[in-house]
Amino acid sequence: MLMEHLNASDPRPVIPLGHGDPSAFPSFRTTPLAEDAVCAALRSAKFNGYSSTVGILPARRAAAEYLSKGLPHKLSPDDVFLTIGCTQALQTILTVLARPGANILLPRPGFPYYEATAGFCHLEVRHFDLVPEKDWEVDLAAVEALSDENTVAMVIINPGNPCGNVFKYEHLKKVAETARKLGILVIADEVYSHLTFGGALPQILENTPSDFFLKIVNTLNESVEICYDKIKEIPCITCPSKPEGSMFVMVKLNLSLLEDIKDDTDFCCKLATEESVIILPGVAVGLKDWLRVTFAIEPSSLNDGLGRIKAFCQRHAKKQ
C-alpha cells in the first residue's frame, strides 16, 4: 500500500526504513562462508531428497551443541525440531497447541503473523501490553488477568520486534515464574539469533568467524546511535528507549503538533509521496499512532532517510 504512494517523478532514491530483511544491503550481506556451505551441501548430493520431518540429524546435532552453550545441561538432537523458517515454526507450534476453546496471549505491539496463524488454528487471541516507559517490559499483571483455564501459552519476542528491546535477566525470570504459576507454556521467539538451514548448518555454526558477527553488531550499533540521535531532533516524534537488540525501534507520533496528519497510516502515506521514505505505521503491529523504523540499512542512507523525515515533519508542523 505504501509503495503505491511513492512519487515516480522524485529523482531521489527511495529510502526503505520499513523492511524486515536487511540482507539486500552490502553491510548486512550473509558471510561468504555461509553461502559456500549452502552450495557445498547442495553439491554433495547428500541432502537433496526428502529428509526426516524433524530435520536431518547432522543439522539437529549442530543446533543442539550450539544451543547448549551456557546451559547447565546439554541438549540432544532429539530436543531439536528444525523448520523452514519462522513461518513454519509458528504454524507447527500453534497447531499443536490448538484445541476447542483455547486462547493464547500475544504481546502488543508484536509480530502480526502470530495473530493470523492463531486465527487459522481457531485460537482466541488475547493481548498483553509491553510498557514503553519500562523499556517495553511485559505487563505481568495483565498476563495474570488475561489468563484462564483455557490459556495454552504466551509469546515472548526477544530481542523485540518491533520495539528493539532486550529483556533483562531478572524480567525474564519473572516472566517464567508467572507462566509457571499460571501453568502455561512460554513460546520464546528469538528469531534474530541465527537464520540458517539444512545440511549447511553444521559448517555455518562451527566455522563462521566471530569477527563477522562483531562487524554486523558494530554496524547496527552505529545505526542505533544515528537513529536515536536524529529522532530526538524531531519534536513530533518520541522514542521512549534506545533499541538494544534486533533492528527496529518504535517511536510515538504526537499528532497534536501536526496540522494535516490524521493518524500513523496517513503520516506514512504522505511521507512516501513527499519524501520517498517508507516506514511502517504502528497500527500494523498493534499500536495506533506509533511508527516502526528499521535501522538495518547503510548508515549513509539512514542519515538521509531520517533527514527527510525531519523535513517532512517541519513542513507539516502546526504554525505557532
From TrEMBL:
Query: Which one GO biological process term can you cite for this protein?
Result: L-tyrosine catabolic process
Q: Is Nucleotide-binding among this UniProt entry's keywords?
A: no
Q: Name one GO molecular function term.
A: L-tyrosine-2-oxoglutarate transaminase activity
Q: Does the UniProt entry include the keyword Transferase?
A: yes
Q: Where are the transmembrane segments?
A: none
List the top taxonomic levels of the source.
Eukaryota, Viridiplantae, Streptophyta, Embryophyta, Tracheophyta
- What is the official name of this protein in its record? Nicotianamine aminotransferase 1
Q: Where is the Aminotransferase class I/classII large domain?
A: 13-200, 204-306
